[in-house]
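FORM 7B - TANDEM STRUCTURE REPORT

SECTION 1: FIRST PROTEIN
SEQUENCE AND TOKENS:
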Amino acid sequence: MPTKFNVYTGEPEGGSTPAAAQLGLEPPRFCSDCGRRMIVQVRPDGWSAKCSRHGELDSKDLETRR
């Protein structure tokens, strides 16, 4: 089974999540698939994050899944 990474710290899954992230105030900074740091842009209506290996993730996409 592949290792998943914490999107806020980049550490292997199971580590602690920062308080701001738990409150939904912080966008993800690391890719959950590879743990690499992503390019993140915060907008007034959300955020977008791009991993050089796994593509782009947008907060609007996550809202439609809920």
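SECTION 2: SECOND PROTEIN
SEQUENCE AND TOKENS:
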Amino acid sequence: MALMQRLTAFLRSPRGQQLVDRGRRELAKPENQARLKQLATRLLSRRR
């Protein structure tokens, strides 16, 4: 449980918020969305 508390505290800190915002900006880019879709397709095809 201590790990979750530390993670939550970090994400609420200014540095954590910067990382969250950067992640959201990166995920909004079409090329990154395409990469994630390809990765998901590969992972799902391995399961079958």
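SECTION 3: OBSERVATIONS ON SECOND PROTEIN
The mean pLDDT is 94.
The chain is about 90% helix and 0% strand.

SECTION 4: SIGNATURE
Preparer initials: ____
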